[in-house]
């Protein structure tokens, strides 16, 4: 089946790493592996485009180019990943209508409160139009289902759990030992790791919360090291905060490419990241695939990717002392830590495995294209 693919928030080739980009690339690659001919039909980044006249011109130009491509190529279905009020899809609905092909959305979002704010109202209405035009909507976040059912019938909404390709994150003890040695760590050291983009907003809030928690009383006498993997515009601020809170116990590794991340995760004993404002948090699945238990806050959709009490601990309130106690418990109990790590790896393999999830997506898209749903 020929599938025209589009990501209005971040094109597949966008240089900035993020969970959205990772999910989009995973869908694209999986559908091609499953025998479909999936092409990126537009690279127009729609984020806040309506705020400037040039944005509308760029949108019109992108729509024209996509129309020419699709008229010549004749796809069987248009699939858009992640339309919402900041980056609404204005290409797929028009092409679907004029070319007579089914229009499907993966991970759309719908929030009626956005229509009340003049700054977000245009994006709300453009996104609403995309949702009303779609034949089927698929979400990987159960927290979004209720909102989608406010605008779409239940038969047009499907939930596919979030996941990763587990083979991309194998536990590699030899590689982990190399990473430890590169940062002056030994096999005997207890190593925590966190992974984040150093940018303003919720990522910085999570890093600041984490550093504060790891400096609290329950952990002051614990002998551990913290690897902080990432980079970004707030790198100096993160470095200063780490120095103040943990001194030499914190090590900034710099940016780690996703293809190398399993090596760094394999160097650690425990993954720690609060996840303030995280809708899901793919990095939790990546860490668990490498056999790491997790400590995070019970916020957003984190409980969809971490099993509290089984693969880690989810702290119910944003309390640094409670977070520190959860970390201290795992540091003090090696047997519990290793057992949760084994459960974490099994959880990803059996219940958050994208090979299984995207086979279902493939069958669903074929049914939509064939007029069966």
UniProtKB/TrEMBL annotation:
<dbReference type="InterPro" id="IPR050194">
    <property type="entry name" value="Glycosyltransferase_grp1"/>
</dbReference>
<protein>
    <submittedName>
        <fullName>Glycosyltransferase involved in cell wall bisynthesis</fullName>
    </submittedName>
</protein>
<dbReference type="Pfam" id="PF13692">
    <property type="entry name" value="Glyco_trans_1_4"/>
</dbReference>
<keyword id="KW-0808">Transferase</keyword>
<dbReference type="GO" id="GO:0016757">
    <property type="term" value="F:glycosyltransferase activity"/>
</dbReference>
């Amino acid at each position: 089946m020929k599938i025209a693919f589009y990501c209005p928030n971040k094109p597949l080739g966008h240089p900035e790493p993020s969970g959205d980009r990772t999910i989009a690339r995973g869908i694209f690659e999986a559908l091609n592996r499953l025998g479909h001919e999936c092409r990126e039909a537009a690279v127009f980044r729609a984020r806040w485009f309506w705020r400037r006249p040039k944005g509308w011109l760029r949108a019109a130009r992108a729509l024209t180019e996509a129309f020419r491509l699709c008229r010549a190529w004749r796809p069987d279905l248009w699939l858009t990943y992640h339309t919402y009020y900041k980056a609404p899809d204005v290409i797929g609905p028009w092409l679907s209508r004029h070319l007579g092909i089914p229009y499907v959305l993966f991970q759309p979002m719908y929030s009626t409160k956005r229509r009340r704010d003049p700054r977000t109202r245009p994006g709300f209405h453009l996104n609403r139009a995309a949702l009303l035009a779609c034949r089927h909507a698929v979400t990987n976040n159960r927290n979004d289902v209720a909102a989608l059912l406010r605008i779409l019938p239940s038969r047009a909404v499907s939930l596919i759990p979030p996941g990763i390709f587990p083979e991309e994150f194998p536990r590699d003890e030899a590689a982990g030992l190399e990473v430890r040695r590169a940062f002056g760590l030994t096999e005997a050291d207890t190593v925590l790791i966190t992974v984040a983009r150093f940018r303003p907003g919720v990522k910085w809030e999570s890093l600041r919360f984490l550093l504060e928690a790891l400096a609290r009383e329950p952990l002051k006498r614990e002998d551990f090291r913290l690897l902080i993997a990432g980079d970004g515009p707030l790198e100096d601020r993160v470095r200063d905060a780490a120095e103040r809170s943990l001194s030499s116990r914190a090590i900034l590794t710099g940016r780690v490419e996703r293809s190398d991340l399993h090596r760094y995760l394999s160097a650690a004993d425990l993954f720690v990241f609060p996840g303030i404002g995280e809708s899901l948090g793919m990095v939790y699945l990546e860490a668990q695939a490498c056999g790491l238990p997790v400590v995070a806050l019970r916020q957003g959709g984190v409980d969809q990717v971490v099993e509290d009490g089984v693969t880690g601990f989810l702290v119910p309130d944003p309390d640094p002392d409670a977070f520190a106690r959860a970390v201290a418990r795992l540091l003090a109990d090696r047997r519990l830590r290793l057992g949760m790590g084994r459960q974490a790896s099994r959880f990803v393999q059996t219940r958050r495995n994208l090979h299984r999830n995207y086979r279902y997506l493939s069958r669903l898209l074929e049914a939509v294209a064939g007029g069966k749903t």
